[in-house]
Design a protein that fits this description.
Elements (H helix, E strand, L loop, with lengths): L1 E7 L13 E6 L9 E10 L3 H7 L13 E9 L13 E4 L9 H4 L20 E5 L3 E3 L6 H4 L2 H14 L6 E5 L3 H12 L3 E6 L3 H9 L4 E3 L6 H8 L5 E6 L14 E9 L13 H7 L3 E4 L7 H7 L12 E3 L3 H10 L6 E3 L7
Parallel strand pairs: 8-9, 8-11, 9-10, 11-12, 12-13, 14-15
Antiparallel strand pairs: 1-2, 3-4, 3-6, 3-15, 4-5, 5-7
Length: about 350
């Protein structure tokens, strides 16, 4: 079975072939099918913005490891006890790459994201076939294609964000970072009634997509002062909700300044594991009473993400597709920043 795997850690932009990070398509054994498992013939696996960072090891995780968790495909086999969801062979599905155990302290405490055994079942999705537990698998709506369906996982992050911010209609919202998560989250907060909806993003094409998806304003941090422009757009008060989807250690610095008094500031991206950001506690936590939080995966969000998929504008994210044998080229295209999303076709599915 073909699977895309990290074989060498290092910057993907390194001109030195000896030290440059590298992914490669390798043959790996197919995973056994347990009684409660579902075997999926993978149609598409999208490259997440975190996947190149895994290759570069900015999170400190040790290779080798599989990559790819934004998956769609067709069920080809079911374990004899995989009957609780009514899934059938031939169903078009997507899913959650994490299996929460359901029995540990955190799972029993309504905090699945901290499951003490959540890493036990993580299997590479950028493969021709995957075997996941039934609890991880969700049937796609009939009017969602397999290309669109591989975006279930990033859409689930947008849904989880809405849970985190307790969105109120009419709140002013700013999103920093116009990658897929930022643009999907922008669509979600638009549905929730955001006003003065602003995307902060240096790439013009992504600002244009934000406007297409309903942004009221965009800010180019390369040519505009983010704080001054934000205050101009919000009558000097700042945004009630500010969400960072950039993961940029430079972009996050002015975000407390543009958050309104009593507002919410969510750091919803992944950051280098050694990065420490200065924060004036007197100004922002005491005097302005900001609520500052982060985001880790998407517990309890996947059923609603599946329901909201048909209402999301997804076609701009699925136009660039590479075959699995061209995975190295696909990763080079990903880090170029030219495309909002890159898909890898792991199998040709009839009718798609």
């Amino acid at each position: 079975m073909k699977s895309v795997t990290v074989v060498k850690v290092g910057s993907l932009r390194d001109p030195n072939e000896e030290t440059r990070g590298k992914v490669q398509v390798l043959d790996i054994p197919e995973q056994p099918l347990g009684d409660e498992d579902v075997k999926i013939k993978v149609a598409y696996c999208a490259i997440c913005g975190s996947d190149p960072h895994l290759v570069e090891n900015i999170f400190g995780w040790e290779p080798p490891f599989g990559i790819g968790h934004e998956v769609s495909g067709v069920i080809v086999a079911l374990g004899k006890k995989a009957v609780k969801k009514g899934l059938k062979i031939g169903d078009r599905v997507a899913g959650n790459f994490l299996k929460f155990c359901g029995t540990c302290y955190y799972c029993q405490n309504g905090q699945q994201q901290f499951c003490e055994h959540g890493g036990d079942y993580n299997r590479p999705g950028m493969s021709e076939f995957i075997v996941w537990h039934e609890s991880q698998v969700y049937k796609l709506p009939d009017d969602v294609s397999l290309k669109q369906g591989c975006l279930l996982e990033p859409v689930s992050i947008a849904v989880r964000l809405m849970d985190k911010i307790s969105m109120k209609i009419g709140q002013r919202v700013a999103i920093c970072g116009g990658g897929p998560i930022g643009l999907l989250s922008l669509q979600a907060v638009k549905m929730m009634g955001a006003t003065s909806l602003t995307l902060i993003e240096p790439i013009a094409e992504r600002r244009a997509l934000a406007e297409k998806f309903g942004a009221d304003h965009t800010i180019n941090p390369s040519t505009q002062d983010v704080v001054q422009e934000s205050m101009r757009l919000t009558e000097g008060r700042g945004y009630d909700v500010v969400i960072d989807c950039s993961g940029s250690t430079k972009a996050v610095l002015p975000l407390p300044e543009i958050t309104a008094k009593g507002g919410e500031l969510i750091y919803a991206a992944m950051y280098p594991n050694t990065y420490e950001m200065p924060l004036n506690l007197y100004q922002y936590c005491y005097f302005h009473e900001l609520t500052i939080s982060g985001l880790y995966v998407a517990p309890y969000a996947f059923p609603r993400a599946a329901q909201i998929l048909p209402r999301m504008q997804l076609n701009d994210f699925i136009s660039q597709v590479y075959d699995i044998d061209d995975a190295e080229e696909a990763f080079r295209a990903q880090i170029s920043g030219k495309y909002p999303k890159i898909l890898i076709r792991c199998n040709q599915i009839e009718g798609e």
